[in-house]
Structure to design on (207 residues):
């Protein structure tokens, strides 16, 4: 169908994933939250010289797919004489990783594409970032104010979790004109009690 042509898949998934490449200069570690089919984490692991990449998904079936896909990508690159990406697949919830000393405040960049509202992402992702690290969230601007409302709803979470004011980057590519990259730097340490358990977060959001 027209919605599943190779060109459209490449544009809306692979190319869309790579739109943040200019923002990753100097990045040594990247954690991709809710990787699902591997976007954006796997294309970024292949295209960017990042030393350590983790693809995170809490659904076991998706995590197993990510293991197969990342191994295939590495094998293909090695066969061509190119360095294969160092990719770890984590079958876990981000909330649990954020309470693990091996991951809390340990990442340069956390990416999230079509995962959750921005207020939730701030609470989940900022604990994983080192000071000065950045959350990069893929969002869309429908022209009717939905992105502005989402940004407004995240203000309290940003203040509590130690995030700076968001920078919103347009994607200057045909077919992706409504896509935005929302970049949030971590400027203060996130309180130890965050993120809250998912059940509590669903009852009372940091909004």
């Amino acid at each position: 169908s027209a919605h599943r042509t190779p060109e459209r898949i490449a544009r809306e998934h692979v190319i869309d994933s790579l739109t943040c490449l200019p923002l990753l200069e100097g990045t040594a570690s990247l954690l991709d939250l809710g990787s699902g089919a591997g976007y954006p984490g796997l294309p970024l692991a292949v295209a960017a010289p990042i030393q350590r990449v983790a693809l995170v998904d809490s659904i076991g079936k998706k995590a197993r797919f990510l293991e197969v896909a990342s191994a295939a990508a590495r094998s293909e690159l090695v066969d061509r004489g190119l360095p294969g990406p160092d990719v770890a697949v984590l079958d876990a919830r981000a909330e649990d990783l954020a309470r693990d000393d091996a991951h809390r405040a340990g990442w340069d960049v956390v990416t999230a594409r079509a995962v959750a509202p921005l207020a939730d992402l701030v609470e989940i992702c900022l604990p994983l970032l080192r000071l000065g690290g950045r959350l990069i969230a893929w969002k869309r601007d429908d022209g009717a104010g939905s992105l502005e409302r989402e940004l407004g709803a995240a203000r309290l979470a940003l203040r509590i979790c130690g995030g700076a004011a968001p920078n919103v980057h347009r994607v200057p590519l045909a077919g992706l004109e409504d896509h935005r990259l929302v970049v949030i730097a971590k400027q203060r340490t996130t309180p130890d009690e965050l993120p809250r358990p998912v059940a509590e977060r669903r009852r009372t959001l940091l909004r």
